[in-house]
């Protein structure tokens, strides 16, 4: 158990399957061992395009400030992280050569089950900074840690995701979902996305009924499906607030608090990561309420600015 009271063994659902090695980068006896088959058509759609890359030489000049108790050492290369081989394959397929500053610090911190408040430039590679450790945790904990769906008292299927990523807009939610599909390719990890709009509501609910390990959602739509018992967050032990400052600017704070306070495990029983381009007082209060007191604070570059150097996305 680390300094914030969260044991890697508690990452599994409700503590029902405690056979997880204390080293979260060591394969659990319950871990998945059978990799999924290749789908060349889907693979081309997922990974094809132009990799614009990153100006790493210029990026080395950007200052990084990481504060907190026992901050894990940053990684210089992805190979240092001892990630599951399936994740490593997908990182290479995506054309990522080495981690960006936000990834260097965020991934080791989240792999260690530490709460994180990360302030980084827009376009800094933050999506991979939380998706890589999130998917790695799910794979290593294996199928015995998963209760993807169950019938509720109304005769409907209720989904129990292990991880929730909240996004301010449908565009960001869809983009994050696509990135999740890349890192989860040929793994057993299932990603689902729900966002506002009447035209695809039924389709989203039907797909949710199949179950998922990680759910990417906008706050309003998530509350809708929660109110219908389509989704329960009682097993959710990994929470990400992506672009938290934008969500607050758009007036989503009441919805966010309602989601987190509804049935989700309390802080200290979950890993929580907040990503924000700015760090105003409202975000500081949210961090105080949602994160453990000794959370890691990460500031990359000039907080609130936009990156000129990073794209790190395959279009």
Automatic annotation (TrEMBL):
EC number(s) given by UniProt: 3.6.4.13
GO molecular function (one): RNA binding
The keyword Hydrolase is annotated on this UniProt entry: yes
PROSITE patterns (alphabetical): DEAD_ATP_HELICASE, HELICASE_ATP_BIND_1, Q_MOTIF
Domain Helicase ATP-binding per the UniProt entry, residue ranges: 107-297
Catalytic activity: ATP + H2O = ADP + phosphate + H(+)
Motif Q motif, chain ranges: 76-104
Alphabetized Gene3D superfamilies for the sequence: P-loop containing nucleotide triphosphate hydrolases
Keywords: ATP-binding, Helicase, Hydrolase, Nucleotide-binding, RNA-binding
One Pfam family this sequence matches: DEAD
Principal EC category: hydrolase
UniProt xrefs under InterPro entries: DEAD/DEAH_box_helicase_dom (IPR011545), Ded1/Dbp1_DEADc (IPR044763), Helicase_ATP-bd (IPR014001), P-loop_NTPase (IPR027417), RNA-helicase_DEAD-box_CS (IPR000629), RNA_helicase_DEAD_Q_motif (IPR014014)
DEAD-box RNA helicase Q domain ranges (all copies): 76-104
PANTHER family for this protein: ATP-DEPENDENT RNA HELICASE DBP3
Recorded family membership: Belongs to the DEAD box helicase family.
Listed name of the protein: RNA helicase
Species of origin: Onchocerca flexuosa
Organism taxonomic ancestry: Eukaryota, Metazoa, Ecdysozoa, Nematoda, Chromadorea
């Amino acid at each position: 158990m680390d300094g914030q009271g969260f044991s890697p063994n508690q990452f599994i659902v409700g503590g029902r399957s405690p056979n997880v090695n204390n080293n979260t980068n060591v394969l659990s006896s319950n871990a998945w061992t059978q990799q999924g088959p290749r789908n060349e058509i889907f693979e081309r759609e997922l990974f094809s395009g132009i990799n614009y890359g990153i100006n790493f030489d210029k990026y080395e000049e950007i200052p990084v400030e990481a504060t907190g108790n026992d901050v894990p050492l940053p990684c210089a290369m992805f190979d240092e992280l001892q990630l599951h081989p399936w994740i490593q394959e997908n990182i290479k397929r995506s054309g990522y050569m080495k981690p960006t500053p936000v990834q260097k610090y965020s991934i080791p911190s989240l792999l260690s089950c530490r709460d994180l408040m990360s302030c980084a430039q827009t376009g800094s590679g933050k999506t991979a900074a939380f998706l890589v450790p999130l998917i790695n945790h799910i794979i290593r904990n294996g199928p015995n840690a998963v209760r993807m769906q169950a019938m509720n008292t109304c005769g409907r299927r209720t989904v129990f995701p292990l991880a929730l990523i909240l996004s301010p807009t449908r565009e960001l939610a869809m983009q994050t979902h696509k990135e999740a599909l890349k890192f989860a390719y040929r793994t057993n990890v299932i990603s689902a996305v729900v966002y506002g709009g009447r035209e695809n509501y039924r389709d989203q609910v039907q797909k949710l009924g199949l179950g998922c390990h990680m759910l990417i959602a906008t706050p309003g739509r998530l509350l809708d499906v929660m109110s219908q018992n389509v989704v329960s967050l009682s097993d959710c032990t990994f929470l990400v607030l992506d672009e938290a400052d934008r969500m607050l600017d758009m007036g989503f704070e009441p919805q966010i608090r309602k989601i987190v306070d509804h049935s989700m495990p309390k802080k200290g029983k979950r890993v929580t990561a907040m990503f924000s381009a700015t760090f105003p007082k409202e975000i500081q209060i949210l961090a105080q309420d949602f994160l453990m007191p000794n959370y890691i604070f990460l500031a990359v570059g000039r907080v609130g600015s936009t990156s000129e150097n990073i794209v790190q996305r395959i279009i």
